[in-house]
Amino acid sequence: MGEIRKLSFAYAGLLTLLGLTVGSSFVDLGGFNSAINLAIAAAKTAVIALSFMHLTSKGLPRLVVAAVGLWLVILFGLTLVGQ
Amino acid sequence: MSGQTQSIAFDKASREKAADILAMWVFIGSEAMLFGAIFLVFLIAHMNYGAAFAAASKHLSLRLGTLNTAILITSSFTMALAHMYSADGRWRAAIWSLAATSLLGLGFLAVKAVEYSKEFSDGLAPVLGAPFSYTGPDPVHAEFFFGLYFAMTFLHALHLIAGILAIAGVLALWSHANPAGRARRIQAVGLYWHFVDIVWVFLFPILYLINRG
C-alpha cells in the first residue's frame, strides 16, 4: 500500500500545482508571471518523471534524459544567443 | 526464467525489461526534441510579439484549458496505477485502470473538440481556409499566435490519439501476452502517456496563461 500512497501524494501535488499556476496568472507580478508558470511546469514535470515514470531508479534512462537535456540546452542556447 | 522472455535475444526477463525501458526513453527523447523545436519557435515569436500574443491568448477558454489539464493529470495517475497493479499481478485492477486512462484521454479530446469548434465559430482559427476575423490589436501577429496554437495543440492531440490506440492495442493483445510481457507493455505505454502529459503541462501555461491579470 506504500506505492498507492506515494502515487496519491504525487497526484494531489500535481493538482495543487495546477491551482497555483492558474491562480498566479490572475495576479499581476510584472515580468515574473511567465517565470513562475514555467517554474511550476518544471516542478510538475519533476513530479511526473520521478513518481509516475520511476526515473528515481539508477541506470541508462537517466543518461538518456541528461543527453536530451544537453541537446535542448544547445538548441535553445545557440538560438537565443543570436537574438 | 528463459521461458518468460518474448524475444530470443535476451537470456533473462529482467534484461529484456531493461532494454524495453531504455528504448522507450530514447524514443521519448526524440519526441522531446520535436516538441522542443516547436516550443522554441513559440518562445522566439512570443519575445518579438509579446503584446499581440498576450491579447490573443485572452480569447482562449481558460476554464476548458484548466479542466483539460486536470483531466490529463488524472489520466496520468490512473496510468501509474495500471503500472503498479500490473507489477503486483493484479490484472483485473490493471485492466480497469487502463480503461479509465483511455476514457480520460477521450474526455480530453472531447473538450478540445468543443474548444476548437468555438474558436472556428468565433473566427479565431486561421487554419484549413477558415475565415479569420480577429478584432483585437495587431491581427497579423494574433493570427500567428492562433496558427501556433492550432499547430501545437493538434500535434499534441495526435500524440494523445496514438496513446489511446496503444492502450487499445495492449488490451486487444492481452490474452496473447504472458504476464511479464503484459507488465512490460503497460510500462512502455505508460512512459509514453506520461510524456504526452508533460508536453501539455508546458503547453497549458504558455498558451492559456499569458498575462491573465
Descriptive notes:
The complex is a heterodimer of chains A (83) and B (213). Chain A has 2 domains: 1-52; 58-83. Chain A has 3 helices and no strands. Chain A has helices at 2-24, 32-52, 60-81. The termini of chain A are far apart. Chain B has 213 residues and is mainly α. Chain B is built from 6 helices and no strands. Chain B is elongated, with a radius of gyration of 20 Å. The chains are: A mainly alpha (83), B mainly alpha (213). The interface between A and B is large, with 42 and 43 residues.
Strands, helices and their partners?
The complex is a heterodimer of chains A (83) and B (213).
Chain A: H1 2-24, H2 32-52, H3 60-81
Helix pairs in contact in A: 1-2
Chain B: H1 13-48, H2 50-57, H3 62-87, H4 91-121, H5 139-172, H6 179-208
Helix pairs in contact in B: 1-5, 1-6, 2-5, 3-4, 3-6, 4-5, 5-6
Largest interface: A-B, 42 and 43 residues
**Major beta sheet of chain B, specifics?**
none
Q: Based on the coordinates given, report the CATH architecture of chain B.
A: Up-down Bundle
Structural class of chain B: mainly alpha
Assembly state: heterodimer
Q: Roughly how many Å apart are the termini of chain B? A: 60 Å
Tell me the structural class of chain A.
mainly alpha
Provide a count of the helices of chain A: 3
Main sheet makeup of chain A: none
- Give unreliable regions of chain A as ranges: none
CATH topology of chain B: Four Helix Bundle (Hemerythrin (Met), subunit A)
The radius of gyration over CA of chain B amounts to 20 Å
How many distinct domains of chain A?
2
> Distance between termini of chain A?
52 Å
The mean pLDDT of chain A is 92
Note the run of SSEs of chain A as H and E: HHH
Quickly count the domains of chain B.
1
